[in-house]
């Protein structure tokens, strides 16, 4: 097969083109049918597609390249399956209640999703554009460990929260949620920094750290913690038990409850 993606710039441009086309196509479906069932699938599936396509067109199936892409693929399959099942059970995503019918507001969300996918995936996309790396080194092993721990934390937290909501209880305090108000986000941030560390160990440039930094920014200041904290405050802000839980429990990093 002739490799028509010759350098890192071409890999990045092709990845951006794939992401824009995929997300805008799913936006058209979501807006046209006024549904939420394709939103999370479109995001997670895009990660899988970028990792697979750039690995394939790089024509380098060395062990480190496979591991780097496989981490993204495993994460996207796990989270995509969970989110797709969750939306089928819930029927709709109330995050979009106020924007679903507003073209420009809803498009704005999908543009943010384009940036999320493209920027977050940059370390692996760039890595797949490089020459064949050596065997797994010490720093790469640290990255794999960070990814593995983060993936376990994220999956465990999602499982606990999903079961909690099925039981119709209030705020979740089971499992890792006893030690963090958003342990799934902590796991997500940790695993993406792990992927970056893995890729960086093979001379991927430092500027690609914008990927996990962008994810961290979104979760901490835009569409993650701020929205969920505001929603919880609105529901339970007058409940003394909730206020005590919020006061005593770490917002992100799982840590021992500060209550005595």
Written overview of the protein:
Keywords: Membrane, Transmembrane, Transmembrane helix. Pfam families: DUF1295 (PF06966). This protein is mainly α and 260 residues long. The chain has one domain. Helix content is 69%, strand content 0%. The chain is globular and about 60 Å long. It starts with 7 loop residues before the first helix and ends in a 12-residue tail after the last helix. The N terminus is likely disordered.
Q: Strand content of the residues, in percent?
A: under 5%
Q: Strand count, sense and closure of the main sheet?
A: none
Whole-number tally of structural domains: 1
User: Any idea what the radius of gyration is?
Assistant: 19 Å
Question: Main attributes?
Answer:
single chain; 260 residues; mainly alpha; 10 helices; 69% helix; globular
Layout of SSEs?
Blueprint lengths: L7 H26 L5 H20 L4 H28 L12 H18 L1 H6 L10 H29 L16 H18 L9 H13 L2 H12 L3 H9 L12
Helix pairs in contact: 1-2, 1-4, 2-3, 2-4, 3-6, 4-8, 6-7, 7-8
Short description:
Keywords: Membrane, Transmembrane, Transmembrane helix. The protein has 260 residues and is mainly alpha-helical. The protein is 69% helix and 0% strand.
């Amino acid at each position: 097969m002739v490799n028509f993606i010759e350098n890192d710039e071409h890999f990045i441009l092709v990845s951006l083109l794939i992401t824009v086309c995929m997300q805008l196509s799913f936006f058209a479906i979501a807006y046209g049918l006024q549904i939420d069932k394709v939103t999370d699938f479109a995001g997670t599936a895009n990660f899988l597609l970028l990792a697979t396509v750039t690995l394939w067109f790089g024509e380098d199936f060395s062990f480190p390249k496979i591991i780097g892409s496989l981490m993204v693929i495993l994460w996207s399959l796990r989270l995509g399956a969970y989110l797709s099942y969750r939306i089928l059970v819930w029927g709709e995503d109330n995050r979009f209640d106020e924007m679903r019918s507003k073209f420009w507001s809803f498009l704005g969300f999908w543009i943010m999703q384009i940036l999320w996918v493209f920027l977050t995936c940059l370390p692996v996309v760039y890595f797949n554009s490089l020459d064949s790396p050596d065997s797994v080194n010490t720093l790469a092993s640290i990255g794999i460990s960070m990814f593995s721990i983060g993936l376990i934390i994220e999956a465990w937290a999602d499982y606990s929260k999903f079961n909690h909501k099925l039981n119709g209880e209030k705020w979740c305090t089971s499992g890792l949620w006893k030690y963090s108000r958003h342990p799934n986000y902590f796991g997500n941030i940790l695993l993406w920094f792990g992927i970056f560390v893995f890729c960086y160990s093979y001379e991927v440039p430092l500027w690609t750290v914008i990927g996990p930094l962008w994810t961290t920014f979104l979760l901490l200041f835009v569409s993650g913690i701020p929205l969920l904290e505001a929603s919880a405050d609105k529901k339970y802000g007058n409940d003394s038990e909730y206020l005590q839980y919020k006061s005593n429990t770490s917002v992100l990093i799982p840590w021992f409850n500060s209550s005595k």
